[in-house]
Amino acid sequence: MATYTGKETLYEYMKEDIPDGNHTFVLEANGENVSIDAEVFNYYTNVTYTEQDSLGSDTADSRMLILRYHKNLIIEAGAVFRPKVRKRGMLVWVNGELINNGTMSMTARGASAPGQNVYLYKNIDETFEYVPAVGGLGGAAGGYNQNGYKGVDGVGRALGGGGGGGMYGTFTNRAARGGNATSYSGGSGGGGGAAGAGGGSYGTAGSDTGGAGGRGGSSGLYYQGHGGAGNPPGSDFNGPTDLGTNSGQPGTGGLLIIFTKKFINRGLIESRGSDSIGRKVVSNYYNHLGGGGASGGGSINIFYTEIIDNGTYNVSGGISYQSGGWSDYYLGGNGGNGTVTLTEIYNPFTIDGYLTKTTPWVTDSFIYAHLSVGHKENRQIFYKIFVNDTEVETSDYYTTPVDLQIPVNVDYFNLGNNRLVIRLIDENGIPDSLVFNITKENEDTFSFVREFNFKEGYITSENIEVIENYGIALKTPGTEFVTVDLPTIHKSKIESVSADCISDSASPLKKVRFLILRDNTYYTYNNGWQVVTRDVENGMTREQLEAITAEQWVELEPSWFLHTFAVVIALQSEETGVGLIKKITVNFQEPITVLCDVITLHAPDKGLRNVLINGEYQLKIMPGIAFDDAEVDYDFYTTPDKIRLRPLNLGHVIGGSYAQIHAIEVINGYDDSDFNVVLFASKNNVAAEERDGYGLLYDSMRDVTRTRIEFSLVPPPNFDPVYPLTFRLDRLSSRIFYVRIKPALTITGDDTFQIRLLGRVV
Amino acid sequence: MQTGIQKLSNLDAVIISQSNPDQNFYGESLDLTDSMLLIKPGFNKDEVYVAELIINLTLSGTYDSGQFYIGKIQNPWDIKTVTYNNRPQIEDIREISFGGGNTFSINATQEADGYGIIIWGGDITVSMISQILTVTPTTFILPSSVAAYKKVVISWRRFKTDYYVRRIILTRNDIEVLNTEDINSQYVDEAMDYDQTYVYKIYAVLS
Q1: Does the global pTM surpass 0.80?
Q2: H or E element in which residue A754 lies
Q3: Is the pLDDT of residue B194 over 60?
Q4: Residue partners of A142: CB distance under 8 A and separation at least 6
């Protein structure tokens, strides 16, 4: 069971592919949503009907009966094309010719159900053809010694109301009105009344929802009130005694809808109401009688594009009459007549053509509709383009006939599914529309569905037609090939491929086969991939195609994105106009996220780096020249990259006396440079004055009181003072030098000076 | 998210013997005391990076522990024609220990980038060989130098996979630092702190 939505009329739904079964069709028209419950039966071959009353299920009143003939329907003379039981209408859709030589009938098949506005068809002026929820009203009951009134005739497409009950005698409240018609039933008849005194029974009105006919009302003794026709009919009554259903007949007129391309009627099409036949029950003792009303006639609605009509129609309401010729009998009212409407499905356009593709890639610029447009009156036309119900372009006028190449910018479409409508409009404003489902794809689209609803650019053979909802068909018997490219851009591996196609048929011969085209070579899978020639006999069946596993697809080619790929569909048929394949679906594997590798890196402390040597990291100093603790490795005073980490603390010194000698290591961290190094001292960026073997800082006025700096490459006790100190420092080597100061006499407290290094590359 | 791509593959193996130096013992098994077992792993080394390769030997019986040798085969060879006398060149020979028993599991990851693996040197007879192979589309290229606040180049080898590489993701201590379709890109980390450890992971989004 499915619920179909998004369309306004039953006609629009009938153009869709609807499987057998119980479904609900929601008619979204005129600002309301009308849910039509229906049972659907499809017939895909020509059907010739010779039976009577054999249509539909045995379930009464709950659903509309929809019969879909995809080819032709012929009703033979003598046949009665009518449902088995009451239905909420019978819709007959014929894609070819409907030839009626017998009887098509909804007589007495009106349903006991609430009415609905049943939207059948939308006219070119955008008005709706519909059957109203409420039809003709029921006729009034008779007054004193008076027949009941006829039900009101249907107007437009409405059904007829039920007849009112007839009344014998003065106690006129014994008879009752007829029921109002619904969209699915003529009105039920009201109960007749007969009374000469009080007491007894009272007649009831016919149902307003296609249900029971009214029962009769009677005061008793010589009086008898008869029931109206309906679903079921009302009972006859004598006084309080229910005499059962005798007079009122079962049934009401029902709803009949026909959509057909060509309608040839040589027979009868009817939907009559049921009669009320006055029958005096039990004996002639009962002489005073009031008859029940008859039920209303139905609604016949025929839509066609071509018609040959030599037949007859009957939607009359039921008749009320008596079977005995009794003089004191007042008849119920007749049922109101229903309606017959024949409507041409008018379309002045003839359109042939194709869309280049319905699945544009995100980077495509345009898709094109190639249309050959004709007009019955050769009027000028223009077109409008709607994407997802938004108008995006309007053309100038063209004189017909005309071949159009209509570009549609792919940017108009959203990723995924879109609805493209190309509306052709003639100079009188009469439109016709082509509707396409467009799927805009990108690299994140992993399921490619190629539905064959419209002829697209890749279908090149003139012998191939594409029938909307039925797929690819051949125009003449033979064999054809259709190549469907697989968009392998940014995708690598196929998960599966499936097809919606017919099963093989031997007579008439019909066959669908599949080959895989990689670059310019054809393959099939048969215990491994085999290179084959393009021949229908070499192709795989649908079952074989769908049985190919993801691993087997990869065997054909692990890197799909390096090649062009296509599925080649081989079609062979002795029958023309029959959809052979509707759809092919290719599922690609979705992306996976893979952890490829993990590394752990350690950034060492200041002045150091980890250097990769023979696949392993070794701790090295940074490139540059560093001052380091002479005894502790990499306990820098200044790092190679010139970060001053700490001073050399000379400790407490006494002015005028030599301080303790300190050792400092100089390291060349470059692995590609040797240096001649000069060391000197400075204070406040002023270099010490060079003297013989020592330097003097400018921190006092007199030489004897200035701070004296001495360097030596020789450790104590053989400290050999020089100034400045020069030596060679090769790459990745170090040298220890010694420093001694004799501080100034004039300074107290903390003081600093710098040892500077000047290196020249050797 | 998965780690590596598990693949089944069809390895093959053959015995060659010093005692019968011109004979190919394909389909037979001999004691490895004076014979060599040549294994051809079931993958193309040019198409994948091997994250781990475990060779499992099932032995013909229960054997005592011992020392064996494993080497990487350096040049192409034919499993049906190889003999001791025309055996391929072997390098990176290393010693491996067998703990005894009737199965011998060998981590041969470091031999996986050669043309095959060769094992010899002890009194065992192999009756069956299987492998557990984990491959990966890429591996990191270790930076030549790692230092704080310096340019540390994080890069990776060219991708070798039969999948399409849609994008790559690089994380640093589990925080994404790169997400790009340019699989040939690299990342320069100039913000390592002193005396700190960083874990980099590279992910590939494949389809």
Answers
A1: no
A2: strand A754-761
A3: yes
A4: A148, A149, A164, A165, A166, A167, A172, A175, A192, A193, A290, A330, A332, A333
Q: By mean pLDDT, which of B40-44, B138-142, B172-176 is the weakest?
A: B40-44
The DSSP call for residue A316 is P
**Are A650 and A674 members of one domain?**
yes
Q: Is A368 helix (H, G, I), strand (E, B) or coil?
A: strand
Q: How many domains does chain A have?
A: 4
CA of B159 vs chain A CAs: smallest distance (Å): 10
How far, in Å, CA of A624 to CA of A621, rounded? 8
Q: How confident is the model at residue A576 (pLDDT cuts 50, 70, 90)?
A: confident
Nearest CB partner across the interface for B207, out of A491, A595, A608 = A491
> Hey, are the CB atoms on B194 and A604 less than 8 Å from each other?
yes
Confidence of residue A284 (pLDDT cuts 50, 70, 90): low
More confident residue, A15 or B60: B60
Q: CB distance A594–B162 less than 8 Å?
A: no
Q: What value of ipTM does the predicted structure carry? A: 0.84
Pick the CATH number of B140-206 from 2.170.150.40, 2.60.120.10, 3.40.50.300, 2.60.40.10: 2.60.40.10
Any long-range contacts for B75-80 (C-beta under 8 Å, 24+ apart)?
Answer: B75/B115, B76/B115, B77/B38, B77/B115, B77/B116, B79/B12, B79/B13, B79/B14, B79/B26, B79/B38, B79/B40, B80/B14, B80/B24, B80/B26
A669 to chain B, closest Cα gap in Å: 14
Q: Would you call A493 and B142 a contact, using CB atoms and an 8 Å cutoff?
A: no
DSSP A581-603: EEEEEEEEPPPEEEEEEEEEEEE
Question: Which of chain A's residues have a Cβ under 8 Å away from the Cβ of B200?
Answer: 598-601
How many cross-chain Cβ pairs, A to B, lie less than 8 Å apart?
139
CATH class, domain B5-136, is: mainly beta
Per the prediction, chain A carries an average pLDDT of 92
